[in-house]
Amino acid sequence: MTEKYDVIIIGAGPGGYVSAIRAAQLGKTVAIIEKNNAGGTCLNVGCIPSKTLLEHGKKVHDIQSADEWGIHTSNLTIDAAQLTSRKVQVVQTLTSGVTHLLKKNKVSYYKGEAKINSDLTVTVNDETLSSQDVV
């Protein structure tokens, strides 16, 4: 059976999920398809994870230079596993926020790889979707 939507969006990065939410707010039935996690490269493996690790590095630097302020710290240790865990937690929190926004706006979310067929339907996870507009 083919699920029909007004709009199908492939990719749940910043352009995709914002477009999906806006289309839904305008009264369209919307499906979004993402092969990885919602939020795109920046949120999942780029900007956000790297900025989280950079912030950790800044904190270490501040602690190491605290002697200049009369704050004496010694035996500073860094738990790489805990830093990585924190980075993962930050990403998961933001990703779940994107997923929540999609759900709140009644956007149908499909996790899997999209394939556009010759009849202009879209297949994902053995399901077939159709729409006049595929973005």
TrEMBL record:
Residues in FAD/NAD(P)-binding domain copies: 5-135
Keyword Oxidoreductase: yes
Cofactor(s), names only, from the UniProt record: FAD
Gene Ontology MF terms: oxidoreductase activity
Keyword Disulfide bond listed: yes
Family label: Belongs to the class-I pyridine nucleotide-disulfide oxidoreductase family.
Domain of life, source organism: Bacteria
Keywords: Disulfide bond, FAD, Flavoprotein, Oxidoreductase, Redox-active center
One Pfam family cited in the UniProt record for this chain: Pyr_redox_2
Organism from which the protein derives: Staphylococcus lugdunensis
The protein, known as: Pyridine nucleotide-disulfide oxidoreductase
